[in-house]
Amino acid sequence: MKSKIGSILLSLAIAFGLWLYVITYVSPNSEETYYNIPVVLVGESVLNERGLMCTSASSTTVSLQLSGTRSDLVKVNSQNITVTAKLSSITEPGEKINLQYEVDYPGDVPKNALEILSQSDFYVTVEKRRVKDVPVVVQYVGERSEDYLYDTENAQLDRTTVNVIGPASVADKIEQAIIEVDVTNQAESISDSYRYTLCDADGNPVDAAEITTDVEEIRFDMKIQRLKELSLVAEVIYGGGATRDNTTVTVSPVSIRVTGSDAALEELGDSLTVATIDLSTLDKSQEIPYTINLPEGVTNQTGVTDVVVNVQFSGLNTREFTVENFRSENVPEGMAAEIINANLTVKVRGPSAQVSLLTADDITVTVDFTNAVAGTATYKATITFDEAFSACGAVMGPYSVSATVQSTGR
Q1: pTM
Q2: Once rounded to an integer, what is the mean pLDDT over residues 42-62?
Q3: 366 C-beta neighbours (distance < 10 Å), count
Q4: Is the pLDDT score of 19 beyond 60?
Q5: Which of the two ends of the chain, N or C, has the fewest CB atoms closer than 10 A to its terminal CB?
């Protein structure tokens, strides 16, 4: 009895196993639905060549209902089914274009082994593709310090345009790539990279999510230097009867604005001497032009390269005298000096009252023979006046005379 029951149970187990095998691996009419199968888009380059581009898709995945043998269905899943949609089949722009796609299975499942009972639709939107260059525009924000010069006109960009690629509906709105440079109290030169914003012609940002560009940042360089007001002055050597009381010396323009490093401007100080004027070399009031020469590292920002020094004499008179009074000094020991000149013409300037009374006898020509050697040569002559005419002075010098120096034999 027990043997009979065991045989029955064994038979049932074998039958169940055979049924399960058929249902699982052999059944030709099995069905299965697969969700979230990724879609691979191909042929984008062909679409671009046609001046088109895909801007959106209804989804990134699709669903498939498949029919086939259970043995084949268990070999596929949402990750190993390949769905390919060919953009190259599209020749015109449009919205919600129903794009057909191809389905492939793993290598050990033939393509005709499974039947597609149903599949979700896949739509794309295709627009005209635009490629263009837009200019880079620099916008300065913030308040600039008045003590510094911002050389905006000579600022440098490592590139002046940005290449924009995207749907024409968006790209056609983009007219410039704007970078903002904050110069609030900026005291040092700028050399940095800046991200830009794609904007329309009025400077309003454009939603550029669908736009691609050829660069993310723009390099910007601008020199910033300290700006300084520099007074222009003339160094005056008074003489020839000209003093602070009777002479006025002015410089025009009175100042210029310069830039340079802090160290260079500090060393320069607050004024620049444009000329040294010895008044004894001038016989009358006059205007004298000079060129402005600045030290290295300092730049003249005014564009003025020349100045005029105006010298005005007041209450002075000028006369010429033929002087015969000579005096020798500092003749070396053992030497004798003989002045060849019989007289010397001297131009004298001084207060009108003194010059009108001055005579040649009141003037002495002093010749300095320091370090003289034997022979005939010219020697420097100094013009002096009697004490009553101390406000007078010789002009249009220097003066010199010829003299012969001989050894005395002592």
Answers
A1: 0.62
A2: 94
A3: 15
A4: no
A5: N
Distances (CA, A) of 141 to 144, 153, 182, 205: 9, 16, 5, 17
User: Cα(268)–Cα(253) distance, rounded to whole angstroms?
Assistant: 18
Report the 10 Å Cβ neighbour count for 115. Answer: 10
What dihedral do alpha carbons 400, 404, 407, 408 form, nearest 10°?
-100
At the topology level, CATH places domain 30-121 in: RNA Polymerase Alpha Subunit; Chain A, domain 2 (2.170.120)
CATH number, domain 131-222, options 1.20.140.150, 2.170.120.40, 1.10.10.10, 3.40.109.10? 2.170.120.40
Round to whole Å and give the CA distance between 304 and 80. 80
Is the Cβ–Cβ distance between 126 and 50 less than 8 Å?
Answer: no
Matching CATH topology for 30-121 and 317-407? yes
Answer whether residue 286 shows pLDDT above 80: yes
Task: Please report, as a single letter, which amino acid is at residue 223.
Answer: K
Q: For residue 79, which amino acid is it?
A: Q
Does the domain formed by 317-407 have CATH 3.50.50.60? no
Give the chain's end-to-end CA distance (angstroms, integer). Answer: 174
Which residues on adjacent β-strands are paired with residue 10? none
Contact 122, 57 (CB under 8 A): yes
CATH class of 226-314: mainly beta
- Written as one string, the DSSP assignment of 328-391 is EE-PPTTEEEEE--S-EEEEEEEEHHHHHH--GGGEEEEEE-TT--SEEEEEEEEEEE-GGGTT
